[in-house]
Amino acid sequence: xxxxxxxxxxxxxxxxxxSTLITALRAQRLLADAVFTREPGGSAGAEEIRGLLVTxxxxxxxxxxxxxxxxxxxxxHVCRTIEPALSGGSHVICDRYVDSTRAYQGLRDVxxxxxxxxxxxxxxxxxxxxxxxxxxxxxxxxxAATRHGPDRFERMGIDFHTDLRAAFLRIASNSxxxxxxxxxxxxxxxxxxxxxxxxxxxx
Length: 203
Ligand code: TMP
Prior knowledge:
Layout: E1 7-12, H1 18-26, E2 35-38, H2 44-54, H3 63-87, E3 92-95, H4 98-104, H5 112-122, E4 129-134, H6 137-145, H7 158-174, E5 179-183, H8 188-202
Bound molecules: thymidine-5'-phosphate (TMP).
Thymidine-5'-phosphate is lined by residues 14, 39-40, 53-54, 70, 95-96, 100-101, 104-105, 151, 153.
């Protein structure tokens, strides 16, 4: 029987270095056969929904519509990409997942209960390990601004992003067995080394 792969998610606020980290993880021997994917997106249908979520004005969607769009994208992604890979024995590394919903949409006008209920009833696949990249909002937004024009979420303002950082740290302290917080103000090499030592211990 094939051993199920492990599901690892990488989370954090804007400009915390997720993309740099993921590029470095792709080059690691330990992860040579892993499937790398991202949210919102990661399947053809979910990538189309991503376009609706990341473009336009910050108030383009009301909070519950946004939650439903994210979950529609997530269900397609899980059914078509994540679950087949895990059942086939591959590890999956996903750039953002349900903790981003808990953190971002949890700061909007949506109850935590609704977020959990929709997740349990429509997706119900949870990560085995979550890396949370942590940096002050000012540093993250400044880094993100150098990459491209701000996307819809980056334009939500500094207070939103400060609360977002606190929300990710709360998630980590509520699930200490699953989440590892990594200081994203360190050099990229130090971040990769910290993440690889957590992964080596678990894979
Ligand atoms: P990215 O910046 O990692 O590409 O993600 C796109 C944006 O989508 C990012 O600003 C965070 C946002 N997002 C949510 O608000 N909720 C979610 O559940 C996910 C996966 C992403």
